[in-house]
Amino acid sequence: MKLLLTTSNAMRVGSSIRRSPTTKSNTEFIESLRANFAEHSTAHEGHVNGDSNSKRASYQTWTRRKGDTLEIPALDFANSALAEERDQYDITVKLFYLPGASREKRAAQTREALDLVLKELHVSSIDLLIVSFPGIYFDEEEDCPDKINTRGPVEAEPEPLEGQLEAWKTLETFYTEGLVRKLGIAEFGKDRLEQHLQKVQIPPSVDQINLRDCCSVPKDLMALAKSKTVELLVHNDSSNILPRGTTRELLGCGEGGAGVLADASKSGDKRKSLHGEESQNGDTSAGLRGEVQPQWVVKYTAVVRNRGVVENKGYFACAELTG
Fold first, then answer.
1. Does residue 50 sit within a domain?
2. Element (H, E) at 35
3. Can you give the pTM of this predicted structure?
4. How many domains are there within the chain?
5. Rounded to the nearest 5°, which phi and psi values hold at 71?
6. 169 in a domain, yes or no?
7. Which domain holds residue 116?
């Protein structure tokens, strides 16, 4: 079963979960998911003197199953998420391929991710699509040798060049179809960028890099980018934006969880229902059972051009439930 998660517009929630310029974006992403799940899963029974008594509704009441996909919460594209005409916005989309995800499904997953954003914003194209590959970090020693390494443990082996190029072909298709005006990559140092430019038909217009404690862009990367008209942009996104354990915590039955996934530690055989009967995808009233593997996350941002104001920002994410 495929689990499709969404934050809706993260700008409408309280400022307490919006990230500061120095905070990794997965904090904003995870807390926005949590807030959106809580909003849909809590059934308010009444308000007395400003106090409210509430309980969490069954996940089946606020999610929607379409074929082999469970929308969490149920998607609603009836109204546009943008207040003005399309030409008033710069729309940037960043797609994160996650560690452990299936490469064979990437072409379909990439199109699905972009299609969700187009439907959410009621637009026919975006301005910039950036792709982030698993295991690729700009702050490796060869990119910034004088920098103290602060990225933490390595979460995945670097994506092989063949995988990068295969995924890039899908992005090039979007470009030729007019769905995307510019393409971009993330965390490419000089060597990776040079190799990439030699192999692709449509070169990236943007390279997003995370400098962290590195005070300046390496000169060789700056020279290459300038010679190839590649714009270097700084970001502070987390490469592994949706770890496997975090996904289960978000969707589980524990405190702060959405109650979509059953508590495997208390449910016995995860392949059987509470009554001992096997069920497809472990679907029971107590929650879904199985192993969760995050596949991808897509982040979209719509900025009003003449004001430089972020009007809409949100995320979609996909995970596979097996077993």
1. no
2. helix 25-41
3. 0.86
4. 1
5. -85, 125
6. yes
7. 2-43+55-322
